[in-house]
Design goal:
There is one protein chain. Helix 6 crosses helix 7. The chain is mainly β. The longest helix is centred in the middle third of the chain and has 18 residues. It is elongated, with a radius of gyration of 41 Å. The N and C termini lie far apart (112 Å).
């Protein structure tokens, strides 16, 4: 890029000059006329033997009546070059006598004016007339000085303590007594007395390895993470392997790779480089190009800045892609192929799609998707080993642009764009992906600079994702006679978030769900579709709106009844027990159930967890409800939970405690469990202690713990529950239900007490959410009009970010009840004593409680021979029944009884018959 002096920056004396640009040659020193010994010179430094032909050194008046005029001009001849040591000295004859260094060329005494002057190195051909308008500054060589003295432009300055000041203009002395500036000296090794480095600094001359003219790309890239040629102007010839030219959101440039025949034998040096081309579009993939430009490190990627010269030499060229493989040997392994056309022959697995909708990128890994370390290994060193392996086993596959919310989203299945019908799921695969390996962001700081394999726009680029993980077409079959499930419904708020913050217990919190009635309609359609297919008899819901007067559970039940039929579901009103809300958070847990399958026993019980040091409960209030299975009378209690998340942004109001007191228990301890692990572990123990006290008063020990515990399977909160006898019903390798940062694991769990474990017939996650891209959800923000339509379907997929978990139960305590006598004869209208007994499967007796007795004949006492008070319960196990027949069918008494051995409870019925006659 050419720069003109009279263009951009206002400097001294009103002179307009260009900001200097980095280049190969710099003005190293200038000495003007001085008091005493009349020594004047200017000194250039750059690549050894570099040509100076076509350049001029000028001194421009910076004050007085002739501002902008050229006072002195020194034109370099065709044979002028920098010396073997990289220096060129032009000055008075006295330079040699004073400094012991002969100038390359001389100018007369008193040539450089002792006043404010601007010096510049410019292209000779650009100088027209006596002023500087239009002068092209081509090197790092513009500065203004105010009076005579020695000025150092290009080199660092060393202090008496060995420290360095940055390169730039420094007035060091008056040319006679350099000690007058407290022994600051230039890091110079050409001019001698007074200007030698301070002993012990270890200063060495700068090295510019690239020289001038044509160079190979691998010479520019080198074997390090940054080019040693940074700042040099070079010329390369190579094949365009990636064309990403044009205005943003394009990458605004193209990638050039050395031809196969010109590659070196060093696998650590890349053969590719990015050429930044602004908004220009002038090359195509497969072009052979010659490019001259300045080497620059931009956000970690080596590039040539906007080319000084660009020539297309031919088209239709190819290069051989370089093979890469995961996992990487180390974190820097991809540096060796930066900017190159690469191929990953192996099968890679989709492990993250979080930014697929926003940036058009997918993260892949080898062998399988990546698992959360603390879901498969103990927190601490074991988990750290897993994390280190994961870090080397991931690669971003990105589209060809840096656009946000791209339309189309190109990475759907089978080479087609993403739609609601053509998804991309976690665990899907891609084999033989070909693209350019870039080191860039994806258009926003939220994406971060990273190595990205870009198939789109690349020479032979291909990335066809295959459906290795089919969408489930039904809920998992878990067996049993009852299904119990948990579902984090991702902020289901019947109150639309389109105005002031009116949600939460105090009605001052953000309404976190749908932002419009249109979004709420879409959210409900997906949610009810998912819940209808889940078809759970008892369902724990997590992340419901918790606002006075808002019955979120009832709203869900009503929605399902409208879809499935009236009366299919009913809601447990936990808010009534909580005084209108459940706990103090903006979200709560709740329960719905199918009345045909189960009957609530008693009222729900609520556990308010202990407060932390800041007076916060952190975990949401737990809700427990006991149910009786309609078909068998067996009893169990469902307990729904939502523990504090792993985010540390809210530990205290200032968010600073972990920086001032990192040992605070709820800070991230670096063991893989995140923030608030201490609180989650404490609350797990509090939950176990609470359940040990039978909070619903059921007398039954069958507890099923459900919900989002915000703890992976191997973490301490789950360990605390296991230590209290609660077994993880879905514990096993490859289990998952949630993905974070491309790593999969389970935060939502179903745990059973020891007595219920034997009744569990199966437990599984329903993989309809975590595997699906978040952009397929109900939201309409950050989507084009087209995407609002094609990325949405009123189906179960991507209802939430958590997969529901479903458990099958076949509860069978083996308890039986016997009544004696079972028949009352003769029907003489007298009261007879009937006794009920119970026995366990092993024959041991049970405690019996007669809860109710009812008759098939109304106890009116009005008909001929009728007597009143036909039923009289006289003890827990005894009842007086009247031996009175009815109609031709006889009469039946039904006794509802409760059987228990002290830990298991069953509700059942027995019958006593009064025959009509002896024919019975």
């Amino acid at each position: 890029m050419k720069h003109r002096i009279a263009a951009v920056l206002l400097t001294f004396a009103g002179l307009l000059v260009m900001a200097p640009v980095r280049a190969q040659v710099v003005i190293n020193e200038v000495l003007q006329s001085t008091t005493g010994t009349d020594v004047e010179y200017f000194e250039l430094y750059g690549p050894p033997n570099a040509s100076l032909a076509g350049l001029s050194f000028i001194a421009v008046e910076a004050e007085g009546s002739t501002v902008g005029s050229i006072d002195d001009r020194f034109d370099f001849a065709p044979g002028d070059t920098l010396g073997d040591n990289g220096f060129y000295l032009w000055g008075t004859a006295s330079v040699a006598g004073v400094y012991g260094v002969a100038p390359n060329r001389e100018f007369p005494d008193n040539t450089l004016e002792n006043s404010a002057t601007t010096f510049a190195l410019v292209r000779t051909a650009s100088l027209v007339g006596g002023d500087v308008s239009g002068a092209e500054v081509v090197l790092d060589a513009v500065a203004t000085v105010q009076s005579g003295g020695t000025f150092f432009f290009g080199a660092p300055v060393i202090g008496p303590d060995g420290s360095f000041l940055p390169a730039g203009v420094r007035r060091v002395g008056d040319g006679v007594d350099t000690d007058s500036v407290a022994d600051w000296v230039i890091a110079d090794f050409n001019l001698g007395p007074g200007n030698t480095p301070t002993p012990g600094t270890g200063f060495e001359p700068p090295v510019v390895p690239c020289g001038t003219g044509d160079v190979f790309i691998h010479e520019i890239q080198g074997s390090g993470d940054a080019s040693e040629c940074d700042g040099a102007t070079v010329t390369i010839v190579g094949v365009v392997v990636g064309d990403y030219e044009g205005a943003s959101p394009a990458l605004r440039g193209f990638y050039v790779q050395e031809e196969d025949a010109d590659r070196d034998d060093d696998p650590m040096t890349s053969e590719g480089i990015f050429v930044f081309h602004g908004n220009v579009d002038s090359v195509n993939v497969g072009d052979l190009v010659r490019v001259t430009g300045e080497v620059d490190e931009f956000q970690g990627q080596t590039q040539l800045r906007f080319p000084d010269e660009l020539e297309v030499l031919g088209s239709g060229y190819t290069v051989t892609p370089t093979e890469i493989a995961l996992p990487l040997d180390d974190a820097t392994a991809l540096e060796a192929v930066e900017g190159m056309l690469v191929v990953a022959p192996q099968t890679l697995y989709v492990t993250e799609m979080f930014q697929l909708g926003r940036f058009g990128q997918v993260v892949v890994s080898s062998g399988d998707r990546l698992y959360q370390p603390t879901d498969v290994a103990a927190p601490g060193p074991d988990a750290a080993v897993v994390q280190a392996a994961n870090d080397l086993n991931r690669l971003i596959v990105d589209d060809g642009e840096n656009s946000q919310n791209p339309d189309p989203i190109v990475f759907g299945r089978n080479g087609s764009e993403l739609t609601a019908a053509n998804t991309l799921r976690g665990g899907d695969t891609v084999t033989g992906v070909v693209g350019v390996l870039t080191y860039t962001w994806a258009g926003n700081s939220a994406s971060g600079n990273a190595f990205r394999l870009r198939p789109v726009g690349a020479l032979g680029g291909v990335a066809d994702f295959e459906a290795a993980n089919p969408r489930p077409v039904s809920a998992p079959a878990v067996g049993g006679s009852l299904k119990v499930a948990t579902f984090n419904v991702l902020n289901y708020f019947p109150t639309v978030d389109e105005g002031p913050d009116v949600c939460g217990p105090l009605q001052v919190a953000d309404c976190r769900g749908a932002d419009s009635a249109f979004e709420l309609e879409r959210q409900r359609a997906k949610l009810f579709s998912a819940l209808g297919l889940l078809d759970a008899d008892v369902l724990g819901l997590v992340e419901l709106e918790n606002t006075p007067g808002v019955d979120a559970e009832g709203d869900v039940a009503d929605g399902l009844n409208a879809l499935l039929g009236d009366g299919r579901y009913a809601a447990i009103d936990a808010a009534a027990a909580g005084g209108g809300v459940v706990g103090t958070d903006a979200i709560r847990v709740g329960l719905i159930y199918q009345p045909d399958a189960v009957t609530p026993l008693g009222e729900p019980a609520l556990l308010e967890f202990s407060l932390d040091a800041f007076g916060e409960p952190r975990s949401r209030t737990a809700v427990a409800q006991t149910f009786v299975a309609a078909a068998t009378g067996e009893v169990f209690t469902a307990v729904v939970n939502h523990f504090k998340s792993k985010s540390g942004s809210e530990i205290d109001d200032s968010g600073a405690i972990c920086s001032t007191d990192p040992g605070y228990a709820d800070c991230d301890q670096g063991d893989g469990q995140g923030y608030f692990n201490a609180t989650r572990t404490l609350h797990a123990q509090e939950l176990a202690d609470w359940l040990a006290g039978d909070p619903t008063g059921s007398g039954d020990s069958d507890f099923l713990l459900l919900g989002d515990f915000n703890a992976y399977s191997m973490e301490e909160p789950l360990g605390a529950l296991a230590g209290n006898g609660f077994e993880n019903l879905r514990d096993g390798s490859g289990e998952y239900g949630y993905v974070f940062d491309g790593q999969w694991g389970s935060l939502d769990h179903a745990l059973g007490s020891q007595s219920i474990v034997a009744a569990v017939t199966g437990a599984a996650a329903y993989h309809i959410n975590a595997d699906e891209p978040s952009v397929l959800d109900y939201n309409t923000d950050f989507k084009s009009t087209n995407h609002v339509e094609i990325l949405f379907a009123p189906d179960e997929y991507r209802t939430s970010d958590h997969d529901p978990v479903v458990v099958g139960l076949s509860l069978d305590s083996g308890f039986t009840a016997t009544v004696s006598p079972g028949e009352l004869w003769a029907p003489n209208h007298t009261l007879r004593l009937v006794e009920v007994s119970g026995a366990a499967a092993d024959g041991s007796p049970l405690d019996v409680t007669i809860l109710q007795a009812r008759s098939s004949e109304a106890d009116s006492g009005l008909n001929n021979g009728d007597r009143p008070n036909d039923i009289q319960i006289v003890s827990d196990s005894e009842v007086l029944l009247r031996a009175e027949r009815f109609a031709r069918e006889g009469r039946s008494y039904t006794l509802a009884v409760r059987l228990t051995d002290g830990s298991q409870v069953v509700f059942t019925e027995v019958e006593v018959h009064v025959p009509h006659d002896q024919g019975r």
